[in-house]
Amino acid sequence: MSKTAILATLPIKEGEKDSFLAAFAAMEAQVEQEGGTEIYILHWDRKDENMAYIYELYTDKDSFKAHGGSEAMQAFQVAIGGLLAGAPQLVGLTPETGKGL
Fold first, then answer.
1. pTM higher than 0.85, yes or no?
2. According to a count of CB atoms within 10 Å of the terminal CB, is the N or C end of the chain lower?
3. What is the mean pLDDT of each run of 10 residues along the chain (101 residues)?
4. Contact at 8 Å (CB) between 37 and 61?
Protein backbone atom coordinates (compact mmCIF):
# COMPACT_ATOMS: atom_id res chain seq x y z
CA MET A 1 0.00 0.00 0.00
CA SER A 2 1.13 3.53 -0.71
CA LYS A 3 1.29 6.38 1.75
CA THR A 4 -1.69 8.65 2.15
CA ALA A 5 -1.90 12.28 3.19
CA ILE A 6 -4.55 14.76 4.27
CA LEU A 7 -4.63 18.53 4.23
CA ALA A 8 -7.22 19.82 6.70
CA THR A 9 -8.29 23.46 6.50
CA LEU A 10 -9.84 24.74 9.74
CA PRO A 11 -11.29 28.26 10.01
CA ILE A 12 -10.98 29.32 13.67
CA LYS A 13 -13.28 31.88 15.31
CA GLU A 14 -11.73 35.23 16.15
CA GLY A 15 -10.15 35.11 19.61
CA GLU A 16 -10.17 31.28 19.86
CA LYS A 17 -6.62 30.55 18.70
CA ASP A 18 -5.31 29.77 22.20
CA SER A 19 -8.21 27.40 22.90
CA PHE A 20 -7.60 25.70 19.57
CA LEU A 21 -3.89 25.33 20.38
CA ALA A 22 -4.75 23.68 23.70
CA ALA A 23 -7.03 21.18 21.96
CA PHE A 24 -4.38 20.55 19.30
CA ALA A 25 -1.73 19.89 21.97
CA ALA A 26 -3.83 17.02 23.35
CA MET A 27 -4.25 15.60 19.85
CA GLU A 28 -0.57 16.01 19.13
CA ALA A 29 0.30 13.97 22.24
CA GLN A 30 -1.88 11.13 20.93
CA VAL A 31 -0.38 11.32 17.46
CA GLU A 32 3.08 10.78 18.97
CA GLN A 33 1.85 7.31 20.01
CA GLU A 34 0.47 6.38 16.57
CA GLY A 35 3.00 4.27 14.70
CA GLY A 36 1.38 4.85 11.30
CA THR A 37 1.23 8.63 11.61
CA GLU A 38 4.47 9.90 10.11
CA ILE A 39 3.80 13.64 9.95
CA TYR A 40 1.18 15.75 11.75
CA ILE A 41 1.95 19.45 11.48
CA LEU A 42 -0.17 22.48 12.37
CA HIS A 43 0.32 25.53 10.13
CA TRP A 44 -1.15 29.04 10.31
CA ASP A 45 -2.02 31.06 7.25
CA ARG A 46 0.33 34.04 6.89
CA LYS A 47 -2.47 36.33 5.71
CA ASP A 48 -5.32 35.09 7.93
CA GLU A 49 -4.33 34.40 11.55
CA ASN A 50 -7.61 32.54 12.10
CA MET A 51 -7.02 29.93 9.38
CA ALA A 52 -5.30 26.74 10.47
CA TYR A 53 -4.03 23.93 8.29
CA ILE A 54 -3.01 20.48 9.44
CA TYR A 55 -0.85 18.41 7.11
CA GLU A 56 -0.98 14.71 7.89
CA LEU A 57 1.06 11.86 6.38
CA TYR A 58 0.30 8.21 7.09
CA THR A 59 2.14 5.03 6.14
CA ASP A 60 -1.04 3.70 4.49
CA LYS A 61 -4.83 4.03 4.37
CA ASP A 62 -5.27 1.70 7.34
CA SER A 63 -3.14 4.00 9.51
CA PHE A 64 -5.24 6.96 8.43
CA LYS A 65 -8.45 5.08 9.26
CA ALA A 66 -7.09 4.10 12.68
CA HIS A 67 -6.22 7.73 13.41
CA GLY A 68 -9.59 9.01 12.22
CA GLY A 69 -11.50 6.46 14.29
CA SER A 70 -9.51 6.95 17.48
CA GLU A 71 -11.03 8.20 20.72
CA ALA A 72 -8.47 11.02 20.68
CA MET A 73 -9.74 12.20 17.29
CA GLN A 74 -13.32 12.12 18.51
CA ALA A 75 -12.33 14.13 21.60
CA PHE A 76 -10.43 16.62 19.39
CA GLN A 77 -13.46 17.07 17.15
CA VAL A 78 -15.66 17.76 20.18
CA ALA A 79 -13.08 20.14 21.68
CA ILE A 80 -12.75 22.25 18.54
CA GLY A 81 -16.39 22.09 17.46
CA GLY A 82 -17.31 25.37 19.15
CA LEU A 83 -14.05 27.02 18.09
CA LEU A 84 -14.59 26.74 14.35
CA ALA A 85 -15.91 29.63 12.26
CA GLY A 86 -17.05 27.25 9.53
CA ALA A 87 -16.89 23.68 8.34
CA PRO A 88 -13.43 22.13 8.11
CA GLN A 89 -12.32 21.04 4.65
CA LEU A 90 -10.38 17.81 4.18
CA VAL A 91 -8.42 17.10 1.03
CA GLY A 92 -7.15 13.56 0.52
CA LEU A 93 -3.75 13.37 -1.16
CA THR A 94 -1.58 10.62 -2.59
CA PRO A 95 2.11 11.48 -2.17
CA GLU A 96 4.10 10.80 -5.31
CA THR A 97 7.68 11.93 -4.76
CA GLY A 98 9.74 14.42 -2.81
CA LYS A 99 12.20 14.95 -0.01
CA GLY A 100 11.17 13.06 3.10
CA LEU A 101 9.25 10.30 1.38
1. yes
2. N
3. 92 97 94 94 97 97 93 93 96 93 81
4. no
